[in-house]
Amino acid sequence: MSLPPGFLDELRNRVPISQIVGRKVTWDLKKSNQGRGDWWAPCPFHHEKTASFHADDRKGFYHCFGCHASGDALTFLREAEGMSFMEAVEVMAREAGMEMPARDPAQARREDRRAELARLMDEAVRHYRVQLKGAAGAEARAYLARRRLSEAAIETFEIGFAPDQRQGLFATLTQRGADPERVIEAGLAARPDDGRAPYDRFRGRIIFPIRDARGRCIGLGGRAMDPNARAKYLNSPETPLFDKGRALYNIARAREACGRGAPLVVCEGYMDVIAMAEGGFEGAVAPLGTAVTEDQLRLMWRIHDEPVIALDGDTAGLRAAHRVIDLALPLLEAGKGLRFVVLPGGQDPDDLIRAEGREAMAALLKEARPMVDLLWARETEGQVFDSPERRAGLDKRLRALIGRIQDPGLRGHYGAEIERLRAALFGAATPGRSRRSGPETGGGWQGGRKGQGGWFPADGRFRPGNAPSPGVLPATRASSLSAPGARIVEDVQETTILAILAAHPDQIEAVESRLEVLAMSTPDREALLHALLAQSQHGDDLPPDCAASLESLRRLPHVRISPAARPEAAPDFVRAVLEETLARLIAARACPAEIAEAMEQIEGLADEGLTWRLSQTAQERRRAERLSLEQAEEKGENHAELSGRIRALIEGQAWRKHRD
């Protein structure tokens, strides 16, 4: 459906975002400022006890300072309640008292047909649940009892039974007035090729209803009671409601559980999911009889940043894990990954929980391995790398795999981790590593003196060759001096920005949008930045740990002598320093990522296109570094005058602080 221009803007203006978000959260009224439309609550997307989720009625956006979820009211309805875009628009239109634009006749017919199919699916679920409780379901009930499914689980998951009857469900539905063609279209019955009457698709099977994220029944799964059946499990066919590559079993309950802090665990089948839920792991889902698809991966990441893939510990389970790795590599993003649990001894989650209890599963989930570990194991286990050719072959394969990752920063981290694993495998010595003499060789080299063609260690005996490097002293290694030059500069810029923000919170609003997406290099600084942003909104005190971090930061020498970090500094001067420092830090971080991505494309000699690209990137960096001064020039300020003011303040205050 096409929406008229301005319709969405009118929706957002009429319905405060707090009204939409308030359906899912409990506002912290002490922290919120209702008069200003400034609302705070514990985040509905990740488990937390503090109110770090912020909604602003004036701007119409929400942002979580913990998990960084953000968006407008429509985004919230789609992410938190699993709605499609048009479904979210309809909800907001009802809240605003606005009529939806008229649907075109073809779309209206499609939506009406889907609604009728969903109604038939619900009738089928009720029919099969009645059959399980009757005389025909005795064998099925016995099987479920042997699998230790409780009555509560059977009710929760709406498990039913389809007797081995050719037209049991079809006759029931058509007698109640259902259109036979719609029963077939819903996937509940099939028409044979020989022209005979339609027959039930599910016969002699335990029935598992499959519901979407909104709770609508979109399909069925059936487990055969006959061990000689051609297919142990049978799913509904593709229908206007059901696309098995885009659905996950138990998705609605899992999403709610993950919102309360549960891990999202991906199992192989229905019974594994139910066993996990019975064991207390309610965030369990399963693909529907196929390998995990790209759409299913994206659906998982909408619910949890790090789904855990729990696969049977047999050959088939490992093959499935490897397929997921190959599928996920080009889809990975910063903060969106996968972890893996391979169950021992060919067990599945149901077997493990029944044999060893939920504690065994909890221990496995706690030790879930990151995807890079399984990727490395797949490429190296059971192989011998006793020649340069074999090692080069491994390197080539790994480069090709890592190259499939689209995010440059994440690709770099994968490369660093693979290099670490490679060094451990081959026992590679770090270049330039110091080799100090031990007691058995006459003591250390300290105090020695050079001689012609050799050197004299502390024991006074001549040694041929060059003296070994003393290496880096521990105190030096622990300081910023051990970091590359760019890292030292960024460290100074980060701490200066935080000190200025703490001393002048009134300057935050002008640069708030850039600060919200600025990543700090340490968790302490990240927490302090978020606390300062929150403090500027409602004036709360800093948390104790953030206050301690700020005090440590203020004791740094370059912060102590920074004139802009002093409370008495002039606002115009503070703003100029803050803008320039922030622009330099953002530019310094953006440039290496772009250059690294371009360099990866160079094979042998760089062509003219890549050379031009690198030169353009360098120019962009220099242009960004001049950003704040150019902005000052537009306001009529003179560069020389501004530089003179900065120089005078530094010279007049830095030394006074030094004497203190």
Automatic annotation (TrEMBL):
Toprim domain residues: 262-346
GO cellular component, one term: DNA-directed RNA polymerase complex
Region (Disordered): 429-455
Listed InterPro entries: DNA_primase_core_N_sf (IPR037068), DNA_primase_DnaB-bd (IPR019475), DNA_primase_DnaG (IPR006295), DNA_primase_Znf_CHC2 (IPR036977), DnaG_bac (IPR030846), DNAG_N (IPR013264), DnaG_primase (IPR050219), TOPRIM_DnaG_bac (IPR034151)
Annotated cofactor note: Binds 1 zinc ion per monomer.
GO terms (BP aspect): DNA replication, synthesis of primer
Keywords on record: DNA replication, DNA-binding, DNA-directed RNA polymerase, Magnesium, Metal-binding, Nucleotidyltransferase, Primosome, Transcription, Transferase, Zinc, Zinc-finger
Keyword Magnesium part of the UniProt annotation: yes
Compositional bias ranges of the Gly residues kind: 440-454
Transmembrane segments: none
Stored HAMAP family: DNA_primase_DnaG
Family, as annotated: Belongs to the DnaG primase family.
Protein name as catalogued: DNA primase
Annotated organism of origin: Phaeovulum vinaykumarii
